[in-house]
Amino acid sequence: MDRARNGRARVSFVSSEAPAPNLRTVPPCEPAALAAILLPIALAAPAEAAPVAVRYVEGSSHGFVVLRSYRGALLANGQLIQTVRGTRVESRLFFHFADGSSTTRR
C-alpha cells in the first residue's frame, strides 16, 4: 500500500496465483443424469387457475415516475396515466429525458 498525492491510501493487488480454471475444462454431464433432471420438468403440467370475478372496478390513475440509473443519477421524469375505456384499461407512459428527448409508450 502506498500513499497517493492527496494523502489517501492507494491499494494495488498483484496476484501470484494461477488464473481460475476455464469452464470449458469441466467434464460434460452424463446424458442419463441430464435426462433425470430435465424429464420431470418437461412432464410437469402447467399451473392453471380459474378466473377471478371483479368485485369493484377501479377508476383511472395518474402517477408521476422518476427513472434513475443503477448508480442513482436522474435520467428522466415521467407520467403514467391509466384510463378505463369500457372493459379495457388504456395505459400511457411518458418520459422526458434530461437531454431534452422524450418517449411515449402505450
Plain-language structure description:
The chain has one helix and six strands; from the N terminus they run ββαββββ. The chain has 106 residues and is mainly beta. A four-stranded antiparallel beta sheet has the order 3-4-5-6, with no helix packed on it. A two-stranded antiparallel ribbon has the order 1-2. A hairpin with a 5-residue loop joins β3 and β4. It has a domain at 61-105.
SSE order and pairing:
Blueprint: E1 2-3, E2 9-10, H1 31-43, E3 61-68, E4 74-85, E5 88-97, E6 102-105
Antiparallel strand pairs: 1-2, 3-4, 4-5, 5-6
What is the CA–CA distance across the termini? 55 Å
Note poorly predicted spans. Answer: 11-15
In sequence order, what are the helices and strands, one letter per element?
A: EEHEEEE
Number of strands: 6
Label the overall shape: flat
**Strand order within the widest sheet?**
3-4-5-6
Mean pLDDT: 75
Structural class by helix and strand composition: mainly beta
Strand content: 35-45%
Q: What proportion of the residues is helical, as a percent range?
A: 10-25%
Main sheet characteristics: 4 strands, antiparallel
Q: What is the rounded Rg? A: 27 Å
